[in-house]
Design goal:
The protein is α/β, with parallel strands linked by helices and 440 residues long. It is 62% helix and 8% strand. Strands 1, 2, 3, 4 and 5 form a 5-stranded mixed beta sheet that branches. The relative contact order is 0.06.
């Protein structure tokens, strides 16, 4: 299920913050139902802002392309002191309305009106028993109207809703203001952590790591069942090499939400790192079915099929699907280039590597070349060298090729890196070794 930002049908712009606030509320409440999988609209839809207020067929089509079976669309109208909320659940395959609900009340009683809307929606979907068991309805609000407005404005700033351009810095400022005024609101800590996620860090001593970890652990303390915060902490731990601790977090998230895309995927990555591909593949495939808009997962599945199963044609179908998604980054294109290489398509391989370089430069614009240099740069260099050699050209800088391939065989690299990555390096070595032998 995909929840899109609500449409403001009022003439007043002073309630634009409700666009993001209503989506956040439904995302949080419906996300607690184990039978529903809530997709992230900011990642699933190329431009969620352009869909607000569109007709049912356009909304259903966009949600279907994002992999959702159902899409929640809604609007709000404010006339004087009165508030009217409406929501429809559309079936994406044909645009048929699966459920609808309307709730009205005083603007100052926003939380009660929100609860009434959610109650009617879950009843229309036949999930009222599960909603009661999960305590989705009836909980006392943990924030004031003023804090809800600020939280909604922060989401608008983060994702560029309400007629504003996306601004992580502006969103971070608002999330910090929420936390300063009311430190009980768990969503604010996770929101602030998300604004900081692009910061560069690779150790537990990095200031960015310490701050993000503090924010996520605070959110988990406030809401022990906050599976999203738990999964994000798992990502954080994984990023700095704490694989066992990260795995514990993913398993904890899965105990709360068995159909968590990120938790299933990262457990699959963990199995693949240990060479247990038959355990990894079902988890990665499930994660793709849950959240099909994540390009990295499709590329990773392609890599597993290539390096372990040698099923290059099937791998290519997955990597081609991955690079068509808006979330495709440098790593996705590098894996696509590797698969094209193994199928003896040097031109397509070089094109993918060039796109990876272009995206890498865009991501790290303003940083020095030395700061950008890392594992992806070395992998890209080796893939380009292998593609050039397969295409009948002489690889550039054979001394660097030799040094990288020699280092790849060292005990430190073999011990540190996952088995899937080491197999990929072995394939590149097999392609490039004749070029090195010819140089001698």
């Amino acid at each position: 299920m995909l929840v899109l930002p609500f449409h403001n049908t009022s003439s007043s712009a002073s309630f634009e913050w409700l666009r993001g606030a209503m989506a956040d509320t439904l995302q949080a409440k419906l996300g607690r139902l184990r039978s529903l999988v809530l997709l992230d609209a900011s990642r699933a839809v190329r431009d969620a802002r352009a869909l607000i207020g569109r007709d049912a067929s356009a909304l259903s089509g966009a949600a279907k392309r994002a992999g959702a079976a159902l899409v929640v669309v809604g609007g709000f109208q404010i006339v004087g002191p009165q508030l009217r909320l409406t929501a429809r659940v559309l079936r994406t395959r044909d645009g048929i309305v699966r459920a609808s609900a309307t709730a009205t009340g005083k603007t100052k009683a926003l939380f009660a009106v929100q609860d009434a809307l959610v109650q009617k929606l879950v009843e229309a979907l036949g999930l009222d028993a599960e909603a009661r068991a999960a305590k989705v309805i009836g909980e006392a609000p943990v924030m004031t109207m003023k804090m809800a407005k600020l939280l909604g404005s922060a989401r608008n700033a983060l994702f560029g809703l309400g007629g504003t351009a996306p601004s992580a810095d502006k969103a971070a400022q608002m999330y910090r203001e929420v936390i300063a005024k009311d430190p009980r609101i768990a969503q604010a800590y996770v929101g602030l952590a998300r604004t900081m996620w692009r910061a560069r860090f690779n150790s537990k001593r990095s200031p960015a790591y310490l701050e993000i970890e503090r924010l996520l652990r605070t959110a988990m303390k406030l809401r022990p069942d906050y599976h999203e915060a738990i999964a994000w902490l798992g990502n954080l731990l994984w990023k700095v090499g704490e694989r066992d601790a990260a795995t514990d977090m993913y398993r904890r998230a899965l105990s709360l939400k068995p159909r968590s895309g990120i938790a299933n995927y990262m457990l699959g990555v963990r199995y693949a790192a240990m060479g247990q591909v038959d355990q990894a593949l079902p988890l990665v495939r499930l994660a793709i079915r849950i959240e099909p808009y994540e390009s990295e997962r499709r590329a990773f599945l392609g890599m597993l099929l290539a390096v372990y199963k040698r099923q290059y044609a099937r791998a290519l179908r997955h990597t081609r699907a991955a690079i068509k998604l808006k979330t495709a980054g440098p790593w996705t294109y590098l894996i696509h280039g590797y698969v094209e290489l193994m199928l003896d398509h040097p031109k397509a391989c070089l094109a993918a590597a060039a796109r990876a370089e272009q995206l890498t430069r865009a991501e790290h614009q303003g940083t020095s070349g030395r700061a950008r240099r890392g594992a992806h740069d070395d992998l890209q260099f080796l893939i380009v060298a292998a593609c050039r050699y397969r295409g009948g050209q002489r690889p550039r800088d054979l001394a660097r090729v030799r040094a990288l391939l020699t280092r790849a065989k060292s005990p430190a690299v073999q011990r540190k890196n996952p088995q899937s990555f080491l197999r990929l390096l072995a394939d590149l070595s097999a392609v490039l070794t004749p070029a090195l032998d010819a140089k001698r």
